[in-house]
Amino acid sequence: MRQEEIWDARAARSYDTPGTGMFAPDVLGPTVDTLAELADGGSVLEFAIGTGRVAVPLAARGVAVTGIELSRPMVEQLRTKADEEAIPVVLGDMATATAPGAGRFRLVCLVFNAISVLQTQPEQVECFRNAARHLAPGGRFVIELWVPEVHKLPPDRKAVVFRFGTGHISLDTYDVLTQQVVSHHFDFEEGERTAELFQSPHRYIWPSELDLMGQLAGFELESRHADWQGGRFTADSASHVSVYRLPGGGELDPAGGAAN
């Protein structure tokens, strides 16, 4: 199934969970704080901007945010919160689409595992290259990504439960040969005999592989932390926030370009 078919109108309507989950203040707050700091007064391009979970509060802080998004329904949901003038969005593939102002952004961001929706290694490399094309010299590309949990796979098993609670369970099924993983999210009511299923395919990436992708696009790894609060990344970390930087460039002007 193609990504634009997965992220349809139904998925877009159910994506936002104000105040809880990904939208909980203790999750969203540090994310926006860090991105605003990395932008340092310049403009930001968000790949896979979705419904504006990050972009809307970032723009509310006065940061100029532009987005690229493949799913029209997700953008339509974003438009219930911010218009085109406030947050311009280009409909297209984040690995290839070009946003106005390319070459002048201070920061490109790709959060909450979104790079993994690109299904092949070449597409993921092109995503890095597209980020580089949009950045001013010295600009940064920040990626939030989970660490593959293949070490949790029991012998001869292919599934790992990664979240469960009242009325919900999520599990990943792995193909370690192709680095493909499918996330299965089951929602159900207590006492009911049926559940609603949402599935999304991904290609998982090891941190070292991600670094090599960055090098192929001309980036250097500037920092890696376990979370948006700056926790230390270790062998036991479940995810990471990695910041890549392009070389060169003098002082950046407020619009995101290099000052003369």
Radius of gyration: 18 Å
Helix content: 10-25%
Q: Please state how the strands of the largest beta sheet are arranged side by side.
A: 3-2-1-4-5-11-10
Give the averaged pLDDT, no decimals.
90
Major beta sheet summary: 7 strands, mixed
CATH architecture of the largest domain, please? 3-Layer(aba) Sandwich
SSE class: alpha/beta
Helical segment tally?
7
Number of domains: 2
Q: What characteristic shape results from the CA principal axes?
A: globular
Question: Would you kindly provide a written description of the structure presented here, covering whatever features stand out?
Answer:
With 260 residues, this protein is an alpha/beta fold. The protein contains 7 helices and 11 strands. It has helices at residues 3-6, 9-15, 25-39, 55-60, 72-78, 121-134, 207-216; strands spanning 44-47, 65-69, 89-91, 105-110, 135-146, 159-165, 168-175, 180-187, 196-203, 220-225, 239-245. The strands form 2 sheets. A 7-stranded mixed sheet has the order 3-2-1-4-5-11-10. The chain has a 4-stranded antiparallel sheet with strand order 6-7-8-9, with no helix packed on it. α2 packs parallel to α5 (72-78).
